[in-house]
Amino acid sequence: MRKLDKIIIGVIAAIVVVIGGVYFLGGRGSDKSTSSDKASTDNPKVIKVAYATTNFPITYQNNKKQGDGYDVAIMREVDKQLPQYKFDYVGTSDDDVLIGVKSGKYQVGVKNIFYTEDRAKTYLFPKNYFGVSDSGFVVRTKDKDKFGGLAKLAQNNGKLVPIAPQNGQYAVIADYNKNNNPKIKLGSADTFVVSDALKWVNEGRYDAFFAIRPMYEANVEKKNGANADLKGKLTYVTLGGIKTYPLFNKDQKEFAAAYDKAITKIIKSGKASELSEKYFGQDNFKLLDQPFK
């Protein structure tokens, strides 16, 4: 065989090998990878659930250094409904819950999260909520009748502590202002220390602070709270309930769909209300039966 013929045959053989390899990796090989990644009861897919460790009684670590709180407990109920997944709970900071879910370090995160359009651009929200947050105003006790409500604050020209636009509470005030007059003056602000906001209300710089009940109780009602000295001077007034959600990484559509089916059953069974009573001392789901006032 001539040298030129040998070279041509060698080149053709190399091309066949390359094409065959591409076919295997891109076709049959990818099918195998897809099936192995798919969650099943025989091969449960590990899901990292991030939770903030300092938001008692919503998310925290108990005496055994285990994840606890309403949000963690309700996710454990979801876990029971989904044998094709295995949940691994990771305690971390508030910021890392958001950063980690966005990057894919965690598949889902929980920390009393409200839905906002801004967040929905970055994260995947499921169709169904899994909890309800008791949300209301912290006002001076002596001025409860004057500022302890949306209409009262507006009618008496009260000053509300500014709210970050990405916060679900901002949307509540914005919706109120769309349908009512006079309106509440709604200022926007970045994050600030909660204990400072409570002091501002007590000092009279502002007349109301939009908060959640657990936060108020932890800071004011507890003996070792950051603002325990304000007990009796400040009062919490419930305005209504805001739905809370687990926050999914954008790539977790299949997992989010499975969650939606599971949480629907859990809420209908009454288990979610039972856990709300356990961790919050009341059934927060009942707050959804009444509009914000």
UniProtKB/TrEMBL annotation:
<feature type="domain" description="Solute-binding protein family 3/N-terminal">
    <location>
        <begin position="46"/>
        <end position="283"/>
    </location>
</feature>
<dbReference type="Pfam" id="PF00497">
    <property type="entry name" value="SBP_bac_3"/>
</dbReference>
<dbReference type="InterPro" id="IPR001638">
    <property type="entry name" value="Solute-binding_3/MltF_N"/>
</dbReference>
<feature type="transmembrane region" description="Helical">
    <location>
        <begin position="7"/>
        <end position="26"/>
    </location>
</feature>
<keyword id="KW-0812">Transmembrane</keyword>
<keyword id="KW-0449">Lipoprotein</keyword>
<protein>
    <submittedName>
        <fullName>Transporter substrate-binding domain-containing protein</fullName>
    </submittedName>
</protein>
<keyword id="KW-0472">Membrane</keyword>
<keyword id="KW-1133">Transmembrane helix</keyword>
<keyword id="KW-0732">Signal</keyword>
<keyword id="KW-0564">Palmitate</keyword>
